[in-house]
Amino acid sequence: MEELVNLFHGFAVALQPFNIMVMIVGIVLGVLIGVLPGLGGANGVAILLPLTFSMSPTSAIIMLSCIYWGALFGGAITSILFNIPGEPWSVATTFDGYPMAQKGKAGEALTAAFTSSFVGALFAVVMITLVAPLVASFALQFGPAEKFAVYFLAFCSFVGLSKEPPFKTIAAMMIGFALAAVGLDSITGQLRLTFGITHLLNGFDFLIAVIGLFGIGEILLTMEEGLAFRGGTAKINLRVVLQTWKELPTYWITSLRSCLIGCWMGITPAGATPASFMSYGIAKRVAKNGSNFGKGEIEGVVAPETAAHAAGTAALLPMLSLGVPGSPTAAVLLGGLLIWGLQPGPMLFVEQKEFVWGLIASMYLGNLVGLLVVLTCVPIFAAILRVPFSIIAPLILVLCAIGAYSVHSSTFDVILMLVFGVIGYLLKKCNYPLAPLVLAIVLGDKAEEAFRQSLLGSQGSLSVFFSNTLVSSIMILGLIALFWSVIQQGYTRLRGAPA
Amino acid sequence: MTTGSSSKSGPAHKLVEAGITLLIALFGVIVIVGSLKAGINWGAEGPRAGFFPFYIGIFIVASSAINLWNGLREDNDGLFAEWGQLRQVMSVVIPTGIYVGAIPFTGLYLASIIFIGWFMRWLGKYPWVTVLAVSLGMPIVTYFIFERWFLVPLPKGPVEEWLGL
Questions:
Q1: Per the CB < 8 Å rule, is B126 touching A391?
Q2: Can you give the residue ranges of the DUF1468 domain (chain B) (predicted)?
Q3: Can you state the angle between helices A435-457 and A144-161, rounded to 10 degrees?
Q4: What is the pLDDT of residues A277-316, one digit of tens each?
Q5: Residue A30: which of A329, A316, A241 has the closest Cα?
Q6: What DSSP designation does B4 have?
Q7: How far is A282 from chain B (nearest CA, A)?
Q8: Nearest residue of chain B to residue A457 (CA atoms)
Q9: What is the ipTM of this complex?
Q10: From start to end of A97-172, where are the E strands?
Q11: How far apart are alpha carbons B155 and B165 in whole angstroms?
Q12: For the whole model, what pTM was predicted?
């Protein structure tokens, strides 16, 4: 019951006029970010993070998380209308969304996508409301060994669940850890890996890495493909919306399954993209008219959108309750918490009740506002897409530069951003995943601290990570996640089914 | 740019990927060297500063070795990208490099105006009116949003000083 009271207090916070305004601004910016190529959720939030320095932490997180919801909504617009996924997690939406648009059913597809996104997000928010406080109070008992085990689990899930080759995932992740280690060592106060370069004294800021890897890297990829937008116009009117809403409840099983997949993939840091693919794949296999998938089946829009949004939202659960972000965007939000002087993790639920519950309440409201905004403003956002890339690209590059500069007011960071951009382009081309790299930069110091403190307690023996049931079960879960693809392969081979 | 815009030639994917894998391995070696310098054994306060990154470096080198092996074994005759595509990419990277290099000297606003203008005029071939409208408009909007409303100072150069901003 205490949670319910807290939640109502949260609503009172979120419903303050300033916060509602911030919410709407955030959603609109977010949809823009989701629609424009080269600006994704993670780097969009990173670029706009400095704008929140002068706000109260609660308003700031409401704005940034609303940018995130907006970006999740926005990705669907480009996928359906232009067959160009604005975000990686909306790739699966193109499979059936674009054929629907070609058949003149763009309105239905968009309505289905937005509504499913909303349902997925709502499901995940309800789950966060119920589960996050429990997880947090449980996590309060964690010692350094358990903390490290949670990080271990998070990173192992990346290796096991991502579609990139596991050793590339490991390499990318370790690069992130190494970058995180550069600079002042937080335990001994000693400098390391700086090689006498003064710019490196403070290490690499992951915000710069995010803006470079995701922002600049994405623009370079888009330049290479020589992108041109061609696509149908969007007309959504009330009749289409109501008609689609009448049809959608028939897919409740698909919806529910996608919600569960999304929540699971969001909490383990696999993220929204694999969740959307997995949900689409399962729906295709299970659905009555599965063979029609890919030709414009509305269920083929419902499944990935629900899962992507559920995953994107659920990614905030471990970020809030454990301090382990479930996605790069959640990682940027976590970076925001640190900048505003809040320590993410279980203590947040004890010490910053207003902040946490204001954020959770804003998730309910933000997604509702988001649904209304996208349903009413689709034509405007679609028109923005017709602005040629040679105008948009320099504007985005300048925005990235501004974002990178304003993190620490350092022009060196802007140069670093470009370097990260080129690295991001090359790594992406060679099939290295970028998300674990970024997450490792964010969590590297904390993971190392937990690791060293645990070893300190055990005089250097690794057995500390298997010293009690709690820590060993987390570690074993991590090992299962690490070898998940191997286990899965063995399982399918045993069953004799095609992979 | 040996073959210009001819469509079907470019660096082989295998070769570029092997190169990148080696660079990553080299990065791993640098991390190991740096860790050794910082000390990887136990000191008075427990593991020393280089202890953790040392193993990270080893992981990087080891996984790169496996990636290199996998990459070379793979049957992939594809191109990394065509020369024309790479030229497109470089046509963004080089001006952006000049742009970020110029910011410390000219300030952000002047550099941005020139950068956006150059981009639109040479790559987009827009009429000068459009070019000027966008390249001047964007920094002005930026100025108001960042410096006036959200109080985030951006780098300024001699021109802004002269204007007294």
A1: yes
A2: 22-155
A3: 150
A4: 888 888 888 877 777 888 888 888 888 889 888 988 888 8
A5: A329
A6: T
A7: 29
A8: B46
A9: 0.90
A10: none
A11: 11
A12: 0.83
